[in-house]
Design a protein that fits this description.
CATH topology: TIM Barrel
Structural class: alpha/beta
Radius of gyration: 17 Å
Shape: globular
CATH class: Alpha Beta
Distance between the termini: 22 Å
Number of strands: 9
Helix content: 25-40%
CATH superfamily: Aldolase class I
Number of domains: 1
């Protein structure tokens, strides 16, 4: 597995926000999101064996591991890494973050999958078919949409309404960081945009959660 960095922080996004976690960031991604905030992870880092990743996690003495990217599902050895980590008594849970473009069947033990499909603002195709595969295969799963514009919001709502029975709730909406725009202002704009749609917020269990680590100035 290609790892470009690992570090201790709090989970700054989604339903597990605030949880102290060891982050292991993979070093490959071919999706190419326009406003990706970790472009350095598209092709960087060092190839590590599953055993070496295991040792990094053990030495951290942290119970929760977050495997993020890059795009972790592009890592050939990911199933072996997940298996090694799940075997550790010291590991309570493994969060895997993916944009959902590449469906894979992975070991489910201790696994919590966060699906974060990218909106039109990011300039990539919405992976509807792949998302439905993830939603039908994984049980411990969170659906987290980033958004910035009215167009983003329309696409998210259309997907949720078309696939209501498959959608796990609550659904997370995360204001997207856009270069040159103060994040606090963007977050406020997105919150106000969503709250205007009473039909939507009354139809789904929704949580609007900004990226807390960015508001705090953490990695």
């Amino acid at each position: 597995m290609k790892v470009c960095e690992h570090f201790l922080s709090i989970q700054g996004e989604g339903l597990t926000v605030g949880a102290p976690s060891l982050f292991v960031r993979s070093g490959r991604c071919s999706v190419g999101c326009r406003f990706c905030d970790t472009k350095y992870s598209w092709n960087s880092g060092k190839e590590l064996t599953p055993e070496e990743v295991r040792e990094i996690v053990l030495s951290s003495r942290v119970k929760r591991v977050v495997i993020t990217g890059g795009e972790p599902l592009e890592e050939e050895d990911l199933p072996q890494v997940l298996k090694k980590l799940a075997e550790l008594e010291e590991v309570e849970g493994i969060t895997l973050e993916t944009c959902g473009h590449f469906f894979r069947e992975l070991p489910k033990e201790k696994l919590y999958l966060v699906l974060s499909p990218k909106p039109p603002t990011m300039g990539v195709k919405f992976p509807k078919g792949e998302l439905l595969k993830f939603l039908s295969f994984y049980d411990q799963l969170e659906l987290k949409f980033t958004l910035y514009s009215e167009e983003d919001f329309r696409e998210i709502k259309a997907f949720l309404k078309e696939n209501r029975e498959a959608v796990p709730e609550p659904v997370v909406l995360q204001p997207l960081e856009v270069p040159g725009k103060p994040y606090r202002e963007t977050a406020k704009k997105v919150v106000e945009m969503v709250l205007k749609d009473r039909d939507f917020i009354n139809s789904f269990k929704v949580r609007i959660i900004p990226q807390v680590h960015k508001l705090l100035g953490l990695k």
